[in-house]
Amino acid sequence: MIYCIGHSIISPLGEGSQANFDAVQAGRSGLKIYTDRFADVEPFCASLFDTPQSFVPLCIKSVEQAIVHCPLSIVQSSDTIFVLSTTKGDNLDLLTPAQTIASHFGNPNPPVVVSNACTSGVCAQITAQRLLEAGLYKQAVVIGCDIQTRFIVSGFQSFKALSPEPCLPFSPDRKGLNLGEAAATIIYSREPIADNQPPCWTLETGSIHNDANHISAPSRTGEGAYQCLKDVMAGTTPSRIDLIGVHGTATLYNDAMEQIALERAGLQDVPKSMLKPFFGHTMGAAGVLETILCVLMAKNDKMVNVIKMLSGFGGVNAAIRLKIED
Amino acid sequence: MEQLIEQLKAQIIEALNFEDMTPADIDTDAPLFGEGLGLDSIDALELIMLMDREYGIKLADPKAGKAIFASVRTMAEYIQANRTK
Amino acid sequence: MLDGQPVAVSETGDKMLVELYRRYAGDYPKFFKMDTLCRLGFIAAEILINEEMRKCENEKMVNAIILANRSASIKNDKDYLATISDGNYYPSPSLFVYTLPNIVTGEIAIRHHIQGETAFYILDNPEQLEPIVQSTITNDPYGASRSEESPITVLCGWLECSAPNEFYAKLQIIWNN
After folding, report:
1. Which residues share a beta bridge with A189?
2. In chain A, which residues have their Cβ closer than 8 Å to the Cβ of C103?
3. Which of C70, C89, C97 sits opposite A313 (nearest CB)?
4. Which residues of B touch C33 (CB under 8 A)?
5. I need a labelling partner for A102 at 20 to 30 A (CA). Which of A74, A308, B7, B51 fits?
6. Cα angle at A234 between A119 and A301, to 5 degrees?
7. What is the C-alpha separation between C164 and B34, in angstroms, rounded?
8. Percent of chain A residues past pLDDT 70, beyond the cut
9. What angle do CA C15, C16, C20 make, to 5 degrees?
10. What integer is the mean pLDDT of C30-39?
């Protein structure tokens, strides 16, 4: 297991994990209808920054906010690895922004970019866990970020996957997903921080499985998602899970697939956290942002065991189980 | 109409990457989805884009596509009736 | 090259991939819907997995796929961009779906019924992949809920396609002894 010693969220709902949590508690959503943000694109509903953001500065700001309660030397240390989760990076370039961010903080190690479609944010945390538990590094700075562009919105429109209104995950009236943009960072460590500051949570275990069914549609039996849930439940039971952060994109097939997977895993009665009506689908940022928020929601309700699950293009599914420290 | 059907078959082959096929290999009245050519959900979306790009027809509701794309003939008939290019 | 021995081909570039497909597979029309990166990965995986099945008495089954490159899906990204150019806006869904590099892991998983872990990383060089694969094997995703004694067997490697007719693949199969 590895320990979270810092985190941050920057989204259209505000800066800081707490500010974003407060916004969600107050029922505020970042979703709006956009008619002329991008040329040629039909009107779409999304959660976007009022002022268009640049990828690298946004990520840097996100890391700066996450390390506020950590020793500054952590980001510069050769024992620290930067892991970036993103689907389209900075205008289709994924590697250079990661290198720029790492070297901005004086980190000497070549960064790792996880590009596993919409599951990237959870996969990046799993990758960090493995590298830390293998003893290769002592800390990991896991950043998730994606900025919406004409490229992405036009593509999802060609898939007819977008809802013209705010999305309704798991609802019989759901019409599709909304897109979103954000940056979120989690700092993981092999040890809890020395000065008696309790970690925010521990990452206990994670799992990734492919449906092996279709490259863009989920398995109708939720095969990969179910296998992930089964894996992360090893050593515990459904009755001990307090909260599940679902993917909940509000597309016809994704939500139905997730419901099936949850039922197969015996988790259908566990309260679900659905965050896309507040943030839209933030792609590479989703896994990191939604993990942080699920934990804050769980802490608020004195819950202990949380699962976060995601699915993505390419038939990939991922899940992690977290434990909230007191 | 026959000319449109032949043209459509060639366009379908190119748009859906049926490398080893010629228009003669496509039965005008065979089902496009299911048993016939066995098209999938992405192919359906690509056909919607084809109708827009080549014939200026915008299909707002993908569910209406099921009837239109039943066969090459039904697709050609719909195009004949609705084309703006 | 397969296990250090060159394989004879008569074509180059994208045509070479089609030639290899016809020789080593030939029964999978979906191949022609794939972008170059996926065709490259599909063929390389097909050749390697079939060779491995032929050699291994125990049929050590690949049950995880971990691939990496530097340029993600840039070549196909540019192909998609051409369908949304100014004055000619007809976004192609079949091109858009391939604007993610991990799709190739999905194509290989579908072809070989691999329901284990699939992942794609963007790295500076192939050497960086080794600790990621090793730590995955050590962590053993199957350890948690394994019901049969099948060790994790990873198809991994570098799969690069940065421009038309410019690509490179080096794959291997690794497992824990």
Report:
1. A3, A139
2. 117, 215, 313-314
3. C97
4. 16-17, 42
5. A308
6. 70
7. 34
8. 98
9. 120
10. 94
Q: Which two tokens stand for residue C152?
A: 């994790």
* Between residues B70 and C151, the one the model is more confident about: B70
Domain positions in chain A are 2-189, 201-324
The answer to whether residue A216 scores a pLDDT higher than 90 is yes
Q: Which CATH class is domain A2-189?
A: alpha beta
Domain-by-domain residue ranges, chain B?
A: 2-82
Helix spans in chain B (H): 2-15, 41-55, 65-68, 72-82
The per-residue pLDDT for range C53-80, each reduced to its tens digit, is 777 755 568 889 999 999 999 999 999 9
Sign of CA dihedral A288, A181, C96, B69: positive
CA distance C55 to chain A (A): 25
Provide the β-strand partners of residue C122.
A113, C69
Tell me the ipTM for this assembly.
0.96
Cβ contact C57:C118 at 8 Å: no
In the complex, which subunits touch B with 3 or more CB pairs below 8 angstroms? Answer: A, C
pLDDT at A24: 97
CA distances for C1 relative to A149, C7, C48, C175, angstroms: 40, 5, 10, 21
- Fold for the domain defined by C13-175: Peroxisomal Thiolase; Chain A, domain 1 (3.40.47)
* pLDDT at A104 > cutoff 70: yes
Which of B42, B50, B51 to mutate: most C Cβ within 10 Å? B42
- Answer whether 0.90 is exceeded by the pTM: yes
Give the pLDDT band (50/70/90) at residue A177. very high
The answer on pLDDT for C147 being more than 70 is: no
| The domain defined by B2-82 carries CATH number 2.60.120.10 | no
What is the four-CA torsion angle of B29, B33, B36, B38, rounded to 10 degrees?
150
Look at chain C and count its residues.
Answer: 177
Pick the residue from chain B with its C-alpha nearest to C33: B17
Tell me, yes or no, if C90 comes closer than 8 A to chain B by beta carbon. Answer: yes
Asked if B45 and A161 count as a contact pair (C-beta separation under 8 A), the reply is no
